[in-house]
Amino acid sequence: MKKIVFWLVWLSVGWSAGPSQAEQPNVLFIAIDDLNDWIGCLGGHPQSITPNLDRLAASGVLFRNAHCAAPSCNPSRTAIFSGQPPHRSGLYQNMQKLREVMPNAELLPSYFSRHGYWSAGSGKMLHYIIDPISWDDYFPKKETDNPFPRTFNPPNRPLNLPRGGAWQYVETDWGALDIQDEDYGGDWLVTKWIGEQLQKRHEKPFFLACGIYRPHEPWFVPAKYFEPFPLESIQLPRGYKENDLEDVPAAGQRLARNRYFAHIQEQQQWRKGIQAYLASIHYADAMLGRVLDELDKSPARDNTIVVLWSDHGWHLGEKEHWQKFTGWRVCTRVPLMIRVPKGAPGLPEGTTPGSICDAPVSLVDLYGTLTDLCGLPEKSEIASRSLKPLLRDPNFQWPYVALTHLDNPQNYALSSDRFRYIHYQSGEEELYDIQSDPHEWTNLASQSDYQAKLVEFRQMVPKDFAPVHESQLGINSFKAEVELTPVVGSPPPASMPTSVAVTLLFQNQTEKKLTLQRFDRDGKVVESITMEKASRRLVHTFSGCTWTIQESVGNGLGYIVVPEKTGRVVVQQEVR
Fold first, then answer.
1. Comparing 574 with 13, which gets the higher pLDDT?
2. Are 559 and 528 in contact (CB under 8 A)?
3. Is-contact 461 410, C-beta < 8 A?
């Protein structure tokens, strides 16, 4: 009789504890930096070795038409963690600071903590910061606000790619390291810490974020990850086509030709770069495998939502471009995988393994999706939809397009289920039929048969765009002053733009409205910007462009020819 009473008491205690755990699933939130579609299940490159990415995709829903909110780290990650796309927040660029632009934003881990979760993370989740107020725990310690553990770097650099000049990012280099994973540190240490947290029994459900840094540059990884990719066997990107820019408007051509690809070809490093990117993906996949293995043997195995994403894609010669920052699909399209266990409050049936969804979705919707799946209150002030209808039925008729912003409000791309539309601040456009042209080789924007489709996309663009949040960027980012040249006698010279993108900070220190005007190669005004008195304005342009500054009544104050580096233009009084 005592035994029966004991078991009844035990079952009663277990029953009271069980449902709360079942109702609050854990979340494992995994980011892989700078990863395009070069993984097996997306078929981006035939030589990729990604068994762990493929097994995760096969265990849940693989989104094959997912797009980042911005093709650069900071705005993309900020949009994910805040639930606010750039056109709502004003954060469009890497140089902006999250907490200066959005001082009161409640980021995703903080929201989960406020609703009973233990939120922790390791590695790069935000743009080179941790944002300590948003986490309960972090590795490295959140007080450092530095998300990177020790990582081995070769003492003598560059290893392979010489620097072409000050314009070249110092980390654009690659090479195999004669070192073991543990000694390399970096992502190995991140995944070790994440694995240790998975093995613990936590008093609360957890939101656990794992930031795998590779294949972000520099592409230095242990030599064993290079071995499956002999240099003589390296295949060029499937999306590369010679003279692919012939039907791309001038704004797109300038964006594409950013010197990197030409320099890499000149140094005969193209295949070495591809080899190193493949090796870095192989390494990142192995680190992911460590995390998935730890989850599989953990107490949380059957009660954890797993989400994997990348912040943006990467060009390796497609459109004559190397790096990110573009509106083409190779850069905006990202891996996205979501696995939901049975019993999750928002999706009790869980996801069906092996599901594939081709609806156009945005990473900004991860905030709304996870709060919905976990049964947390809806956060009404964010602009993040729940993807739950697509997780339940991947063929659900999704009525939205995915919006990707480039560096300012008027440079953006829209992705539908079949077409992609790109718009530049100059008014130039591109249109591609992804069904028949997945690599975007044929721009349809000038063809008469597709003018109705262009009108359709123009009507899908948000009506209101937040400007680039300029007041918080700080003058220290624009130290070099660009002097105004007086307009005396002859008119200012016509523009001779190069492919070097430059951001200038114009400071109107007068008590009058000013007008900034950009000339084209024929000396015609093609862009005008109004500045209020005593204001500042960021202008995104290209070196070699000519800009005039004048009072709104037409009194010219002077002109500049844009240099090759970021700078500031201070207007204090008329230049005579």
1. 574
2. no
3. no
What is the distance in angstroms between the CA of the first residue and the CA of the last residue of the chain? 104
Domains of the chain, start order:
24-405 (3.40.720.10), 475-571 (2.60.40.780)
Token look-up 């900071």 returns 74
φ, ψ (nearest 5 deg) of residue 83: 75, 15
Distance CA 425, CA 108 (A): 32
Q: Which residues are the active-site residues? A: 73, 127
Tokens 């909110």 correspond to what residue? 69
Residue 20 has pLDDT above 70, yes or no: no
With CA atoms as reference, report the closest residue to 40 among 58, 20, 59, 27: 58
Closest to 354 in 3D by CA, of 68, 65, 66, 64: 64
Helix (H) or strand (E) holding 405: strand 402-405
Q: Map residue 242 onto helix, strand or coil.
A: coil
Side chain identity at residue 377, one-letter code: P
Going by C-alpha positions, the residue among 232, 335, 328, 239 that lies closest to residue 281 is: 335
pTM of this structure: 0.85
Q: How confident is the model at residue 15 (pLDDT cuts 50, 70, 90)?
A: very low
Query: Does pLDDT of 1 surpass 70?
Result: no
Beta bridge partners of 355: 61
Can you name the residues that pair with 63 across neighbouring β-strands?
A: 336, 357
List all residues 6 or more positions away from 463 whose beta carbon is below 8 Å from its beta carbon. Answer: none
- Within 125-278, strands assigned E span 137-139, 174-177, 206-212, 219-222
Show contacts of 534-538: CB within 8 Å, 24+ apart: 534/508, 534/509, 534/510, 535/508, 536/470, 536/471, 536/505, 536/506, 536/507, 536/508, 537/470, 537/505, 537/506, 537/508, 538/408, 538/468, 538/470, 538/473, 538/503, 538/504, 538/505, 538/506
Q: Coil, strand, or helix at residue 415?
A: strand
**Predicted pLDDT at 543:** 87
Cα-to-chain-centroid distance, residue 276: 21
For the chain, give the number of residues.
576
